[in-house]
Amino acid sequence: MITGNNNQQEDIKFMMRALEVAEGGNGFVNPNPLVGAVIVKNGVVIGEGCHEYFGGPHAEINAIKNATQSVEGSTIYVTLEPCSYFGKTPPCAQALIENKVFRAVIAMQDPNHLVAGKGITMLRNHGIIVESGLLEAEAHLLNEVYIKYITTHLPFVILKTAMSLDG
Prior knowledge:
By secondary structure, this protein is α/β, with parallel strands linked by helices. It has 6 helices and 5 strands.
């Protein structure tokens, strides 16, 4: 839950932007989630990124790569908890630690059992201020297909129909 923040309106603005940025991976990242990241320093966006395609760099890495200045001391707004394990890519939480991000605002915890709170714990254990739950419902809606798959191992079905050969 977001606490101790005097400027929640600004946090909402930047998280809404992260949700918009996340849409950049729509149709290309499945079965992975849509994730957007916005890096802010002194009230100014210095980097943005999304998970662009399956197997490619995650949103946090792209935002760091696209940053116009050092991200040290910045706040990152990310729509899903940063990963904390080595998969196709190294852990994003480790990259945030190495780049000395000061604060992470996360819309929702990753339901994937390989992450599920471990990214948040990793960040906190390295002195990064972590706040989660901002625009969680919007982030959940953005990734309803991913959440269904990762929690049930079943596909997200919108319509199932049958028809005879003669129509």
